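REQUEST
  id: r-88c1
  op: predict_structure
  target: Pseudouridine synthase RsuA/RluA-like domain-containing protein
  payload:
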Amino acid sequence: MLTFHPKPLVFSAVAMSGPHSHQPERKITIAAENYPVPLSPTLPPISKQIELSRAMTASSNSSLYSLSPADILYHDDHIIAVNKHNGIYCETLLSSLASQSDELHLANRLDRDTSGILLLTKSHKVAAKLVKAFTEHKVKKTYIALCTGPPPNWEQVTVRSGHGRSKFGAWRVYAASDVGRTLPGGSVVRSMETSFEVLSVNGNGGFREVSDTGDAGNVLVVEEKAVKEDCNDSEIVVRAYPRSGRTHQIRLHCQYLGISIIGDVKYEGVYEWKGTTHHAHHLHAETLSFEHPVTGLNVMLRAPLPLWATKAFQH
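RESPONSE
  id: r-88c1
  status: 200
  body:
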């Protein structure tokens, strides 16, 4: 596919040295910046108010939060894995575990409203090893998302795009060919890749085990804005296999595919669905597999499905 990048506009100005100066005139050339154009929409106006309300609720609840022993998925002398519930900040959960160790560190992070596996370490050394494994994509992850939109015409698909902050600070999808280009804040567009598989549409289908490879299916290389269909009446459960670790990656790619996550008002997800108001987006960090940073053994963790997921499979 051919991609057109217009040349930057160039303006010229003449600097005068004063009416009595004998210095020659100096010509100054100013190049207007040519920033890449985001391909996903701006944030809906309603999202700011709703997000603020959710943040205030989460903050006010933080002092009351106590981790249930049932939410500890794995525990040894070096790491702790917990099942984080939605509406909880990672820092809140970290504070609630302070009695477990004098030195706890987050090895990964989840958005406030994303539930599922959160991994913590008991030392700087172990933390550094796990963070390195996450950065080098040696940790395999899967997520479950409940979305609305037209029934997908694919069973598996892989989305490759750019990712970055727009001039208003929001995370947006950019063209794959824009990777490496500079953005208004001085950062650059980075690559982003997610594989998806459909688990059910309107209750047809069901839960199945995680694929070892996460079949890539057809590869969609993003180079232009998606054409959004008006139909938004199907309920779709997908499993996501992130191949990179960008902020809001799965949420952005679901939006681009036209199947925004229920409750994800920031990325065009419905706030009310089937007579129910959803106070969090329905995204769950389902599994995590990695090499133990101390023993070298393979560790496979799974978080129980949240209620919204089990209900979706029971339709």
